[in-house]
Protein backbone atom coordinates (compact mmCIF):
# COMPACT_ATOMS: atom_id res chain seq x y z
CA UNK A 1 0.00 0.00 0.00
CA UNK A 2 1.32 3.45 -0.85
CA UNK A 3 2.55 5.49 2.10
CA UNK A 4 0.15 8.42 2.21
CA UNK A 5 1.53 9.94 5.42
CA UNK A 6 2.45 13.60 5.06
CA UNK A 7 6.21 14.10 4.79
CA UNK A 8 8.65 16.92 5.29
CA UNK A 9 11.41 17.38 2.75
CA UNK A 10 14.76 17.67 4.56
CA UNK A 11 17.80 19.13 2.83
CA UNK A 12 21.16 19.43 4.58
CA UNK A 13 23.65 21.57 2.73
CA UNK A 14 27.32 22.25 3.51
CA UNK A 15 29.89 24.24 1.50
CA UNK A 16 31.19 20.90 0.15
CA UNK A 17 28.05 18.93 -0.61
CA UNK A 18 24.32 18.31 -0.31
CA UNK A 19 24.62 15.79 2.53
CA UNK A 20 20.94 14.88 2.70
CA UNK A 21 17.90 15.22 0.48
CA UNK A 22 15.10 13.04 1.85
CA UNK A 23 11.39 13.00 2.64
CA UNK A 24 11.14 12.45 6.40
CA UNK A 25 8.42 12.00 9.02
CA UNK A 26 9.94 14.31 11.63
CA UNK A 27 13.13 16.06 12.70
CA UNK A 28 14.59 16.77 16.10
CA UNK A 29 17.31 19.43 16.08
CA UNK A 30 19.10 21.32 18.82
CA UNK A 31 18.66 25.07 18.40
CA UNK A 32 20.74 27.48 20.50
CA UNK A 33 17.73 27.98 22.79
CA UNK A 34 16.62 24.36 23.08
CA UNK A 35 15.41 21.30 21.17
CA UNK A 36 13.09 21.70 18.22
CA UNK A 37 10.72 18.98 17.08
CA UNK A 38 9.54 19.55 13.51
CA UNK A 39 6.63 17.65 12.00
CA UNK A 40 5.08 18.16 8.53
CA UNK A 41 2.91 21.27 8.66
CA UNK A 42 5.18 23.07 11.14
CA UNK A 43 5.00 26.87 11.09
CA UNK A 44 7.72 28.71 9.18
CA UNK A 45 10.80 29.33 11.33
CA UNK A 46 14.48 30.11 11.12
CA UNK A 47 16.64 28.89 14.00
CA UNK A 48 20.37 28.89 14.79
CA UNK A 49 21.57 25.35 15.34
CA UNK A 50 23.98 24.18 18.00
CA UNK A 51 26.66 21.54 17.38
CA UNK A 52 24.62 18.40 18.01
CA UNK A 53 23.25 15.22 16.47
CA UNK A 54 20.20 15.91 14.30
CA UNK A 55 17.63 13.10 14.35
CA UNK A 56 15.22 12.40 11.52
CA UNK A 57 12.82 9.51 11.04
CA UNK A 58 11.91 7.83 7.77
CA UNK A 59 9.15 5.19 7.82
CA UNK A 60 9.73 4.35 11.48
CA UNK A 61 13.54 4.25 11.23
CA UNK A 62 15.49 6.86 13.17
CA UNK A 63 18.64 8.24 11.54
CA UNK A 64 21.17 10.67 12.90
CA UNK A 65 23.51 13.22 11.40
CA UNK A 66 26.36 14.98 13.17
CA UNK A 67 25.72 18.66 12.48
CA UNK A 68 28.09 21.53 13.17
CA UNK A 69 26.63 24.93 13.91
CA UNK A 70 24.41 26.51 11.27
CA UNK A 71 20.82 27.38 10.51
CA UNK A 72 17.57 25.52 10.10
CA UNK A 73 14.80 27.03 8.01
CA UNK A 74 11.33 25.51 7.81
CA UNK A 75 9.20 26.90 5.02
CA UNK A 76 6.10 25.06 3.81
CA UNK A 77 6.94 21.38 3.45
CA UNK A 78 10.70 21.90 3.25
CA UNK A 79 13.25 22.04 6.06
CA UNK A 80 16.69 23.26 5.05
CA UNK A 81 19.78 22.98 7.21
CA UNK A 82 22.75 25.09 6.17
CA UNK A 83 25.83 24.18 8.14
CA UNK A 84 29.61 24.29 7.88
CA UNK A 85 29.79 20.47 8.24
CA UNK A 86 27.44 17.50 8.54
CA UNK A 87 28.17 13.78 8.39
CA UNK A 88 25.98 10.68 8.32
CA UNK A 89 26.95 8.12 10.98
CA UNK A 90 28.55 5.78 8.46
CA UNK A 91 30.73 8.56 7.00
CA UNK A 92 32.32 9.52 10.31
CA UNK A 93 35.99 8.68 10.73
CA UNK A 94 36.10 7.77 14.41
CA UNK A 95 39.91 7.85 14.70
CA UNK A 96 39.97 11.35 13.23
CA UNK A 97 37.36 12.50 15.73
CA UNK A 98 39.24 10.90 18.62
CA UNK A 99 42.38 12.75 17.56
CA UNK A 100 40.40 15.98 17.28
CA UNK A 101 38.99 15.41 20.77
CA UNK A 102 42.45 14.75 22.23
CA UNK A 103 43.89 17.85 20.55
CA UNK A 104 41.08 20.04 21.85
CA UNK A 105 41.26 18.61 25.38
CA UNK A 106 45.03 19.13 25.48
CA UNK A 107 44.57 22.76 24.45
CA UNK A 108 41.88 23.30 27.07
CA UNK A 109 43.77 21.60 29.88
CA UNK A 110 47.22 22.91 28.96
CA UNK A 111 48.78 25.70 30.97
CA UNK A 112 49.54 28.02 28.04
CA UNK A 113 47.79 31.40 28.21
CA UNK A 114 47.61 32.15 24.53
CA UNK A 115 45.23 29.44 23.45
CA UNK A 116 41.96 30.24 21.86
CA UNK A 117 39.64 28.67 24.43
CA UNK A 118 36.45 29.22 22.49
CA UNK A 119 37.93 27.66 19.37
CA UNK A 120 39.12 24.61 21.32
CA UNK A 121 35.73 24.26 23.02
CA UNK A 122 33.96 24.29 19.64
CA UNK A 123 36.42 21.75 18.21
CA UNK A 124 35.80 19.53 21.26
CA UNK A 125 32.06 19.84 20.83
CA UNK A 126 32.27 18.87 17.14
CA UNK A 127 34.43 15.85 17.99
CA UNK A 128 32.10 14.69 20.78
CA UNK A 129 29.06 15.13 18.55
CA UNK A 130 30.67 13.01 15.80
CA UNK A 131 31.72 10.34 18.29
CA UNK A 132 28.20 10.20 19.74
CA UNK A 133 26.63 9.76 16.31
CA UNK A 134 29.23 7.21 15.19
CA UNK A 135 28.99 5.13 18.37
CA UNK A 136 25.21 5.11 18.50
CA UNK A 137 24.80 4.25 14.86
CA UNK A 138 28.00 2.45 13.87
CA UNK A 139 30.56 4.77 12.29
CA UNK A 140 33.68 3.42 10.52
P1 LIG B 1 39.38 18.02 12.26
O1 LIG B 1 40.26 18.72 13.25
O2 LIG B 1 39.46 16.51 12.35
O3 LIG B 1 39.50 18.55 10.85
P2 LIG B 1 37.09 19.72 12.62
O4 LIG B 1 36.00 19.68 13.63
O5 LIG B 1 38.00 20.90 12.68
O6 LIG B 1 37.87 18.33 12.73
P3 LIG B 1 35.44 20.62 10.49
O7 LIG B 1 36.12 21.94 10.22
O8 LIG B 1 34.16 20.64 11.27
O9 LIG B 1 36.47 19.60 11.16
O10 LIG B 1 35.14 19.87 9.11
C1 LIG B 1 35.99 19.98 7.98
C2 LIG B 1 35.54 18.92 6.97
O11 LIG B 1 35.95 17.63 7.42
C3 LIG B 1 34.03 18.84 6.80
O12 LIG B 1 33.77 18.51 5.44
C4 LIG B 1 33.62 17.68 7.70
O13 LIG B 1 32.44 17.05 7.23
C5 LIG B 1 34.83 16.77 7.61
N1 LIG B 1 35.10 16.01 8.83
C6 LIG B 1 35.57 16.49 10.00
N2 LIG B 1 35.75 15.51 10.89
C7 LIG B 1 35.33 14.36 10.29
C8 LIG B 1 35.24 13.00 10.70
N3 LIG B 1 35.62 12.59 11.91
N4 LIG B 1 34.78 12.09 9.81
C9 LIG B 1 34.40 12.48 8.57
N5 LIG B 1 34.46 13.75 8.12
C10 LIG B 1 34.92 14.69 8.97
Automatic annotation (TrEMBL):
Residues 8-86 form the ATP synthase F1 complex delta/epsilon subunit N-terminal domain. It holds the Pfam family ATP-synt_DE_N. GO terms for molecular function: hydrolase activity. CDD domains: F1-ATPase_delta (cd12152). Keywords: ATP synthesis, Cell membrane, CF(1), Hydrogen ion transport, Hydrolase, Ion transport, Membrane, Transport. It comes from the Bacteria. Produces ATP from ADP in the presence of a proton gradient across the membrane. F-type ATPases have 2 components, CF(1) - the catalytic core - and CF(0) - the membrane proton channel. CF(1) has five subunits: alpha(3), beta(3), gamma(1), delta(1), epsilon(1). CF(0) has three main subunits: a, b and c. This is ATP synthase epsilon chain. It comes from Megasphaera lornae. The lineage of its organism: Bacteria, Bacillati, Bacillota, Negativicutes, Veillonellales.
Amino acid sequence: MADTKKKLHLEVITPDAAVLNEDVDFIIARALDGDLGILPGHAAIIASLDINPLVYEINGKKNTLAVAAGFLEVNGETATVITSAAEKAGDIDVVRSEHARERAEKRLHGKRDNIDVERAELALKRALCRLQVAHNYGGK
